[in-house]
Design goal:
Blueprint lengths: L6 E6 L3 E7 L6 E3 L9 E2 L1 E5 L14 E3 H9 L4 E5 L13 E5 L2 E4 H20 L5 E6 L8 H17 L4 E6 H10 L6 E8 L4 E8 L13 E7 L3 H13 L23 H6 L11 H8 L8 H12 L3 H16 L5 E4 L8 E4 L1 H25 L9 E5 L6 H10 L4 E4 L5 H14 L3
Parallel strand pairs: 1-10, 10-11, 12-17, 17-18
Antiparallel strand pairs: 1-2, 2-3, 2-4, 5-6, 5-7, 8-9, 12-13, 13-14, 15-16
Helix pairs in contact: 2-3, 4-12, 5-9, 5-10, 10-11
Length: 439
């Protein structure tokens, strides 16, 4: 009797996570549908402060995961949203406790453990049995230039994986995993620049791939360089919102002239907060609302202030952020101008975004990202012409403005697109099959 495979692969990402399990189909593995039919899920946990108001049930503390966690936060439930948990690995915070509301506190590492348990439960339901072995992705460096803390970070993640029931835990570097898809078709040894551009960071790695290397499990020495910047999709959304959605609410509008002086721009801090996802809810504090209401006299056009206060009072900040992201996506592939419906702010109100506007809004961010890619190749000790392929992964690589700029910086490289959201998980699934399928 053939034993059912008991292994899986987990991409525990900063912004999104995914998990692959064995499959009889092409490739030998498949991605698990984690929620709403999607194979990726935001790396987010929401702790409800008041279990009586929570839309979920279960043992205390009550939690929601992924998109449900984000929705609970946006809808204003009392509690604590935890995101980017991966960033605490290797820091002293990992073993510290944090307040999650309702007189409850949890260790940061326990937040990660709970999230991994949720992923594993979903995967076991899809696999039809227990999963005991796992390959987990890890960045080239959890902590830059500190080998001891970097090792501590991996040990902490391994401890979390074992705490949820994995007996055999292996790690593979994320850029190597992302390159596996390309390596499957490689006919010779090549240098690939992996561009992993997600929601929070743009990470680049120069990776050596080739037919003779496919079967090797230890691939660290095939990563010639790794570098990145903390600029990516959420920054793009913020720029688009400031450029296209917030001017009708008074951003960069002139105030009233006073005492013979020329008019000045209205204060901009509120607009920066309104365009910054994790700061939006701070605008709904009663004290802050009163402060904003008192600013009415600063506006030459009363409609600007009226619209701003409508957004704040009706808690529409995250709705505007979602519309900014949708507008960015609409012009991402080079489409024609996109009309942004702002009827939720005022009946009949709308704005417009086209590729030229987006290019202007994102120019500084794109410059820094391209500079990081060039620096990565320089750190590898090779020239741009030595790069055979640019392998794009991460949700933000759907932005043509970005990929065109990167391709222009490496004209000798073939542009190859992986799965925007799940290339790392797919590559980790390939790696898990090599490690575990035969024993």
């Amino acid at each position: 009797m053939t034993r059912s495979p008991d292994h899986c692969a987990i991409d525990f990402g900063t912004s999104n996570s995914a998990i692959a399990i064995p499959s009889a189909g092409a490739g030998g593995h498949r991605l698990v549908e984690l929620e709403d039919g999607r194979s990726t899920m935001p790396t987010a946990v929401f702790y409800f402060a008041d279990p009586h108001d929570a839309p979920v049930s279960g043992p205390l503390p009550l939690r929601a995961f992924g998109r449900a966690a984000v929705a609970a936060y946006v809808e204003g439930y009392d509690g604590r949203l935890m995101r980017s948990m991966k960033s605490i690995l290797g820091s002293s915070l990992a073993e510290q406790a944090t307040d999650v509301g309702g007189g409850q506190s949890v260790k940061y590492l326990d937040v990660i453990t709970g999230y991994l348990h949720h992923l594993k439960s979903k995967a076991e339901a899809a696999a039809g049995g227990p999963l005991r072995r796992v390959v987990m992705g890890r960045p080239v460096y959890f902590v830059d230039e500190d080998p001891q803390r970097d090792a501590q970070a991996q040990s902490a993640l391994e401890a979390a994986a074992r705490a949820v029931g994995f007996a055999d835990v292996c790690f593979q570097y994320e850029p190597i995993a992302a390159a596996f898809d390309y390596e499957q078709q490689a006919q010779r040894e090549e240098l690939v620049l992996v561009a992993d551009i997600g929601g929070g960071t743009s990470d680049f790695s120069v990776v050596r791939v080739g037919p003779a290397r496919r079967s090797r499990l230890e691939r660290k020495h095939d990563i010639l360089a790794n570098h990145g910047v903390h600029i990516a999709g959420t920054d793009f959304d913020r720029r688009v919102e400031l450029a296209a959605l917030l001017p009708p609410l008074g951003y960069r509008a002139l105030g009233r002239a006073a005492k013979g002086q020329p008019p000045r721009e209205v204060p901009s801090a509120v607009y920066f907060d309104l365009a910054t996802w994790h700061l939006i809810n701070t605008l709904y504090n009663p004290t802050r609302v009163a402060e904003l209401q008192a600013m009415a006299g600063f506006y030459a056009d009363p409609a600007h202030h009226r619209r701003l206060m409508h957004v704040v009072r009706h808690r529409l900040g995250h709705e505007l952020a979602a519309r900014a992201e949708a507008a960015k996506i609409a012009v991402a592939g080079g489409g024609s101008g996109h009309r942004i419906d702002l009827g939720v702010v005022e009946p009949g109100l709308s704005s417009q975004l086209d590729e030229a506007q987006a290019a202007q809004a994102l120019a500084a961010d794109l410059d820094r990202i391209v500079a990081a890619a060039r620096e990565t190749v320089k750190l590898a000790g090779v020239s741009p012409d030595d790069i055979s392929a640019l392998y794009f992964t991460g949700g933000s690589t759907g932005l043509r403005l970005l990929t065109d700029r990167l391709a222009a910086a490496f004209p000798a490289a073939a542009a190859v697109r992986g799965d925007g959201f799940a290339s790392v998980a797919t590559g980790l699934g390939i790696d898990a099959a090599r490690r575990f399928a035969t024993h």
